Every structure is written in structure tokens, then in C-alpha cells.
Structure of Pyridoxal phosphate homeostasis protein:
Amino acid sequence: MSLTPDDIAANLAAVRARVAAAVARRGPGPVPTLIGVSKKQPAEAVIAACRAGLGDLGENYAQELVAKAEVVAAAVTPPRWHFIGPLQTNKVRKVVAVGALVHTVDRPGLVDELAREVARLRAGRGATTPLEVLVEVNVGDEAQKAGVTANDLPALLDRIAARPELRCVGLMAIPPEPPEGDPEQTRPHFARLRELSRREAAIARPGVDLVHLSMGMSADFEVAIEEGATMVRVGTAIFGARPPRA
Ligand SMILES: *Cc1c(COP(=O)(O)O)cnc(C)c1O
């Protein structure tokens, strides 16, 4: 069962208050963008969140994103969509068509496919605005995890710099689950992403402007903000528990 619109609005207000408190602890800097993660939640839940003032939504599956974006756009002013799931090259066309900010660029083949699709979509339209993307980094060096390693990050940024269709605006990470669910244990991973960003931002590359750090979820977004997150991805704290996969 998904939550009622009133519950979603109340959760959203509570999360916003926690974001504001974390920003106050952090000190000066940008106000982080709150991305509501709506995977496996019905379009009605997204519409309720949009009506409550949420302007950024995140989805993990291309097909679900396309279907939901259409229903939502028919009901409210469309939000800005973020694609935060693993992206297969054969799903790139769908995601690019929705205009989502892709947070999960993690390999050369995906850079090339995104650039190809942007060029294709724009051929004949005369539009030249590049597609904004983030690079996902495997900050915990986990064997099974998506994301580019810290070692391979510079080469991947070079590859994006060579593609005028793309603009890299920051880095994203999904750190390892802490053993006791203690968000403090995730803090060093957030700090590592910030340090990698600082290091790479010192290198001038065309079309690469590392201003964003997409990090922090329901369990740890406050710690992420204290460590410099400019985008937090919050699902269950806004929408409630996700229904089990059908
Ligand atoms: C599902 C998901 C989230 C949101 O997780 P919650 O714990 O529900 O807040 C954030 N980021 C990514 C990449 C996700 O897949």
C-alpha cells in the first residue's frame, strides 16, 4: 500500500526540516536539491509529492521512468527527472528522451552511447545544449558494485570531455551498507567522494564542471549533507516502504 497524499506531504515537510537542520550544522554552501526516489511507487504518489512542492524525482528503471513520466506530466507541472539506477546501453534512448539527469555514468561504452543518442535526438533540431550527467564512483571499492573505481575516474572524465554532447556536472556514490546501520560509518565514504571531486576539479577539462555531489539516502542524508552533498536521494522517508517487486 502506498501512502496517502497527506502522509506524503507530511513526510516531505519532515525531511525538508531535517535537510535544513543538516545544512545549518554544515555551514555556508549551496542548499542541497532534495530528490524524491519513487521507484516501485505508483504515479499517484509522485503526483502527490509534486503537489506538495517537490520538483525533483528519481527513478531506477528506464521503463518505469518513461511510463511514470507520462502519467505525471498529464496531471501536474512535470518535475525534473533523475535516473539513478544501473543503465544498460540498450535503455539509453528511453532515458535520454525523458531528459533525465543521469547519475550513473560509470563506463566508457555508456559515455559513447549517451553521446550518440543525444546527437541522434538533436539531429535536425539545431539544438546544441549538452545533456548533463554525473559519474558514479565505487567509493567503497566493492567487487560487485556499479561505479567507476577511483583509479579509472580520470580517464572516464577525459572521455566525457571529448564528447561535446555531454556535460559532466558532478559525482555520485552509493557507499557500502554500514554494518549496524550506523550512518556515521558511512561518513568516510562521503568524504572520499568529496576529496575525489576536489582533486579532479583542479584539472581543466572542457564540458566537465564538478559542482555536484549526489550522495545520501533515507538512512544517511544528514551525514551526507554535513560532508558536502548538493543532491540527496530520499525514497522511503518520503514515500514509505516500497512494495515488494511483483
Ligand atoms: C532506492 C535508491 C535510493 C533511495 O533509497 P531510500 O533508502 O529508500 O531512501 C537512493 N539512491 C539510489 C541509487 C537508490 O537506488
